[in-house]
Amino acid sequence: MAIHRKNAVLLKELLNAPQKLPEVMKTVNKTLLKHFDEIVNSFKTSYSNGPVEGTNNKIKVIKKTAYGFRNFANFRLRILLALKTSFLSMNMRREIKKATHPIQEQAA
Fold first, then answer.
1. 3-class SS string, 45-106
2. Has residue 2 been placed in a domain?
3. Is residue 17 part of a domain?
4. Domain Transposase IS204/IS1001/IS1096/IS1165 DDE, which positions (predicted)?
5. How does pLDDT run along the chain (108 residues), one tens digit per residue?
6. Buried (b) or exposed (e) across 38-55, using 16+ Cβ within 10 A?
7. What's the pLDDT at 105?
8. What's the DSSP call for residue 3?
9. N or C, fewer C-beta in 10 Å, the chain?
């Protein structure tokens, strides 16, 4: 209830209240107290590391299914192809476009 309401004071009271808990729950309680500041920060912001975790997972799958790449450049290109909407991929496309379509100077 304290987490749903994003109430740090209520959460702290619940975690510090003397209770008879099973051993497993004591471990959970200790972990929540250890990371209390981070939990309260998550109340204030809505940031998530989900997109980063998803990207890491895609890279691991590429690495696993490839059985190794001959060189790092090929591995990097395969990742950029798979992550076509990522910031890195967009930068890479811009770099490739510059390299393949150089600005031609007009003769004056």
1. CCCCCHHHHHHHHHHHHHHHHHCCCCCHHHHHHHHHHHCCCCHHHHHHHHHHHHHHCCCCCC
2. no
3. yes
4. 18-79
5. 777 677 788 878 888 887 777 888 888 888 888 988 988 888 888 778 888 898 899 999 988 888 777 888 888 888 888 887 666 656 666 666 666 665 554 444
6. ebeeeeeeeeeeeeeeee
7. 45
8. T
9. C
Paired tokens of 60: 């691991």
Residues 39 and 69 in one domain: no
User: In b/e form, how buried is each residue of 3-15, taking b as 16+ CB within 10 angstroms?
Assistant: eeeeebeebbeeb
**44: amino acid identity, one letter:** K
Residue 3 lies in a domain: no
Give the range of the structural domain holding residue 21, as residue numbers without chain letter: 8-44
